[in-house]
Specification:
362 residues, alpha+beta, Deoxyribonuclease I, Chain A, 6-stranded mixed sheet, 9 helices, 12 strands, 43% helix, 23% strand
């Protein structure tokens, strides 16, 4: 405001100076306000016909420029004020938007943390389906039904056990296609490693679980190296991730016993490495071992068997009949509902039991 008053005062002085110069160059000087008032009063008294109010003198060009300049300055001031208001409102909106984004980010982190520790459950199974080559013409299990019949039975078993995930062994590509078409489950590796390496595929319900990654490790199997799958999944409701490992080491004695123990040692290393992620690790498979698998693998890898057992203060395998097929896990988890289903063997749908249990992940 002080700056505006100084500008107007300066402009006024300039205008008066300009009027004075103009009048001086044309003739007599301008009378003072008092002189003009006195002369006008005297003239009115001397001549009563003169009206009480004389007409105003025409506005000079200088005065017009002054008034225009004054209006321009007022408009400029209003424009500056409007611009300041606009900028203030924009800055305020940006600040509010930043604050809203900050709060949204904090809420997202909080929810993610809560989801990352939210408990969930899943039912896992393990099933050696008896490969289709065994019951094909020339196979060594011709007293079993063909794979086309047994695959339907395998799907029924999956439904009967209510599994969300099942590790398979000996699953040939024709059996893989049959199981997937009837269950809608995804599979890893499925056909990703070729039609000759579908045996150890892990089937899972992709409505509940999202594929995160897949990898492999290699063990000797009956005289040649075989890849074994490692699958990382995300649970849809909580967003929590976990690993599933499925394996099938060699069966028999002699050199195959050596291979089996090599496979067991490799599995222990894999599980311990995966545990470093802090995620739960589940292992399914036809281990071709009972008590020995429990005592050589489960304690060293820090696993919990779904069918019981203990290894604190010495190895004590699960009581009762033990299958060579296993469902075990590591992490903050417990098991319930272990089921060693003998029906596949008694109905000659496979030469292995269907094993399942429900994991409770804390």
């Amino acid at each position: 405001m002080a700056v505006c008053a100084l500008v107007v005062a300066t402009l006024g002085v300039g205008l008066v100076a300009e009027v004075w110069v103009s009048q001086s160059s044309a003739g007599p000087s301008i009378a003072s306000d008092g002189q003009v008032a006195g002369d006008l009063a005297g003239a009115t008294a001397a001549n009563p016909t003169i009206p009480d109010t004389a007409p105003l003198a025409p506005v000079t060009a200088v005065e017009t420029r002054y008034l225009q300049r004054r209006d321009e300055m007022a408009e400029a001031g209003q424009a500056r004020t409007a611009e300041h208001v606009r900028k203030f409102n924009e800055a305020k909106q940006r600040a509010l938007a930043r604050e809203a984004a900050r709060k949204a980010k904090q809420l997202a982190k909080k929810l993610a943390k809560e989801r990352a520790t939210a408990p969930f459950e899943l039912t896992l199974g393990s099933f050696n389906v008896l490969g289709s080559q065994h019951t094909a013409p020339g196979g060594d299990r011709r007293n079993f039904p063909p794979a086309s019949v047994r695959s339907v039975a395998a799907v029924n078993l999956m439904g009967k056990h209510g599994v969300d995930i099942v590790g398979t062994q000996e699953l040939q590509n024709d059996q893989l296609a049959a199981l997937q078409s009837r269950t809608g489950f995804s599979a890893y590796p499925g056909l990703q490693w070729g039609s000759k390496e579908t045996d150890n595929s892990i089937l899972y319900d992709d409505d509940r679980f999202t594929f995160v990654s897949g990898s492999q490790f290699t063990i000797p199997f009956m005289g040649r190296p075989r890849p074994q799958p490692i699958l990382r999944l995300k649970e849809a409701t909580t967003g929590r991730e976990f690993y599933v490992v499925n394996t099938h080491p060699s069966a028999g004695d002699g050199r195959y016993l050596t291979e089996r123990r090599q496979g067991q040692a490799t599995l222990v290393g894999v599980v311990n490495e995966l545990k470093e992620s802090g995620l739960p690790v589940f292992v399914t498979g036809d281990m071709n071992d009972r008590q020995e698998f429990y005592c050589r693998v489960v304690p060293v890898a820090g696993l919990i068997a779904s069918n019981g057992g203990s290894y604190s203060g010495g190895c004590r395998p699960p009581s009762g009949s033990i299958a060579v097929d296993w469902v075990v896990g590591a992490g903050d988890l417990s098991w319930s509902g272990y089921w060693r289903d003998t029906s596949p063997v008694t109905t000659r749908m496979s030469d292995h039991f269907f094993i399942s249990a429900t994991a409770h992940v804390g």
